[in-house]
Amino acid sequence: MLQTNNLSFNYSNGPSFSFPNFRLEKQEVLLVLGQSGKGKTTLLHLLAGLMEPNEGSVMIDSQPMTELNGRSRDSFRGKNIGIVFQQAQFIRSVTVMQNLQLARSLAGLPNNDPFALELLNELGIGDKANNRPSELSIGERQRTAIARALVTKPKIVLADEPTSALDDKNCEAVASLFERTVTGHGAALVIVTHDQRLKNRFQKSVSL
Predict the structure, then answer these.
(1) Which long-range CB contacts under 8 A does 69-77 form with residues at least 24 apart?
(2) Amino acid 197: pLDDT
(3) Of 83, 86, 197, which is closest to residue 141 (Cα–Cα)?
(4) All domains in the chain, ordered by first residue
(5) Does the predicted model carry a pTM greater than 0.90?
């Protein structure tokens, strides 16, 4: 489902990173652990095809990401990869539900599926569906970002510090939702984090 090989990235006039090889199958969760500055977000961007490695390769569902360019890479990402960024970005002029519906539209999926509202309800923010992102708390925005990443039922979910702004109760809710997602939809999940609460929940991990 997801495999890396000899992956590295060098920033111009900045740090260089080399990443361990790993292979992740359907319904598996991998934690990528490390403190700030160790390249966790860089790795996530490489996996998502948002950046190109200097060396090595990323394979998702038998597709080498480096063989995709421009629109074909964007289309592949929209249909197959859900991303939870550390700093959530939304279209501010529309509601939470409309942000989720847009993600489905870009993936070629219908907007009349009740799954979007089900996700928001599971995350405790169903009552915020008609709010704009600016009207949400930091934790609510993070949970909205998680819902948006999952709403297309992607094959791969990549999450960058998804629980950093959450208290213990909501951290548990997010961890449980991630588990149900990878089990119920046959997805694979990569979480980059320094949150030790998740380390106690998910056993498969690599350290940077």
Answers:
(1) 73/49, 76/49, 77/48, 77/49
(2) 87
(3) 86
(4) 2-207 (3.40.50.300)
(5) no
